[in-house]
Every structure is written in C-alpha cells, then in structure tokens.
Automatic annotation (TrEMBL):
This is Cyclase/dehydrase. It comes from Fermentimonas caenicola. Gene3D superfamilies: 3.30.530.20. InterPro entries: ORF3, START-like_dom_sf.
Length: 108
C-alpha cells in the first residue's frame, strides 16, 4: 500500500500463478475513530471494490475487528475465474495486515 493522502491510497497485489500484478486506488469515504473505516475503489482502478473495517469493544479490554470486503473482477468470466484464484491470496493479505495491526496496537 502506498498512501497518496490521508484519504487516498494505491494498493498492489500479485495475481496467483505468476500472471502479474493488479493495482487499484482507494478512497476512505467514512472514518469514525474507534468505530469503523469505510472505503471504495476509485473509478480508474483495475478492480472495483468496497470495504468496511469495524472495531467492536469487548468487555474484557479487547477489541473485535470485523472486515467486510467486496470486489468485482474485471473481464467477465475470465476475470471471475482469476478472482477465484486471487481470493485466498487476498484473505492472507488481510489476515497478515490485521496481525501486524494487532502487534502495533499492543506495543503502544
């Protein structure tokens, strides 16, 4: 991820099978500190997507993080086939990012 501003960023991911990379630009549409962050891809992106990360305080001094991401693959049926291959990689990226986020927060 490369930040362009406080609300805009560029994301890049490898396509499984060595088919190259895809890149998309996102815009944070809503940011309610301590509650949730919502974003959408920009019109010139290779992948159309939206997402929401919600932070839920639990009684035991911990926080539950819920991530919802939806995306529409380009190129019709071919793109849908590639998206099925790409989904496990995307899930791994998200899990790794959440683990890194957890490590940073716990270190504070």
């Amino acid at each position: 991820m490369r930040a362009l501003s406080d609300y805009h960023s560029v994301w890049k991911a490898k396509i499984p099978g060595g088919f190259g990379t895809i890149e998309w630009k996102c815009e944070i549409t809503t940011d309610v500190p301590g509650e949730y962050i919502k974003w959408k891809s920009m019109p010139d992106s290779q992948v159309e997507n939206t997402g929401l990360v919600r932070f839920i305080d639990l009684d035991d001094d911990s926080t539950l993080i819920r991530v919802n991401i939806s995306y529409k693959a380009p190129a019709g049926k071919l793109g849908s086939g590639v998206a099925k291959l790409f989904t496990p990689s995307l899930e791994k990226i998200i899990r790794d990012d959440i683990k890194n986020f957890k490590r940073v927060i716990e270190a504070i």
